[in-house]
């Protein structure tokens, strides 16, 4: 199964990320997002960041997770290399805890910027043994 695929979109970037479960699909969504601006395979794992977010539903959780990563780009000049761990669980709300690794963007070639994650055309599908998330990013 491919980690992610890009779909046609007029002005922004649209992708589907796949996984055997929701955690893997969210992980692959993060990698897809960063692959828009750099080759994530070349990024070294020099620093790590802990991410925690909670939301009322899974779409909001995906949005919040990806927005946290955009925040790291903007404030820490961070480029993602790997999602070291990611857990999603539900109590009254949905919770996500992740550890991401990467390096400063100054050390790598980048193309373009990610302005924001959008809810436009966002999808999350789960079936036995597979999950898919679809995201549109404002570039």
Can you give a write-up of this model?
By secondary structure, the chain is of the alpha+beta class. It has helices at about 20-35, 60-75; strands at about 5, 15-20, 45-55, 80-90, 95-105, 115-125, 130-139. It has a single domain, classed as Archease domain (Archease, Possible Chaperone, Chain: A, domain 1, 3-Layer(bab) Sandwich), CATH 3.55.10. The protein has 2 helices and 7 strands; from the N terminus they run E-E-H-E-H-E-E-E-E. A hairpin with a 5-residue loop joins strand 1 (about 5) and strand 2. The protein is globular. The mean pLDDT is about 95.
Please report the total strand number as a whole number. 7
Principal-axis shape equals globular
* SS element count, helices: 2
Bin the helical content: 10-25%
Largest sheet: 4 strands, antiparallel
Which oligomeric form is depicted?
Answer: single chain
CATH H-level superfamily: Archease domain
CATH level 1 name? Alpha Beta
Share in β-strands? over 45%
Poorly predicted ranges:
none
What would you report as the Rg, rounded to the nearest angstrom?
A: 14 Å
- SSE succession: EEHEHEEEE
Number of domains: 1
CATH topology type: Archease, Possible Chaperone, Chain: A, domain 1
Span from first to last CA? Answer: 27 Å
Please state the structural category: alpha+beta
| Strand ordering within the main sheet | 1-2-7-6
The CATH architecture classification is: 3-Layer(bab) Sandwich
Mean pLDDT: 95
């Amino acid at each position: 199964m491919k980690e992610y695929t890009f779909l046609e979109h007029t002005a922004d970037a649209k992708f589907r990320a796949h996984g055997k479960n929701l955690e893997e699909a969210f992980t692959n969504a993060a990698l897809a997002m960063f692959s828009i601006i750099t080759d994530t395979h070349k990024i070294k794992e020099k620093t790590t960041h802990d991410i925690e977010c909670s939301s009322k539903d899974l779409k909001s959780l995906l949005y919040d997770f990806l927005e946290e990563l955009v925040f790291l780009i903007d404030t820490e000049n961070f480029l993602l290399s790997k999602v070291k761990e990611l857990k999603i669980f539900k109590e009254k709300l949905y919770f996500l805890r992740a550890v991401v690794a990467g390096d400063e963007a100054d050390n790598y070639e980048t193309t373009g910027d990610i302005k924001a994650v959008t809810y436009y055309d966002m999808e999350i599908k789960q079936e036995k043994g597979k999950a898919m998330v679809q995201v549109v990013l404002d570039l």
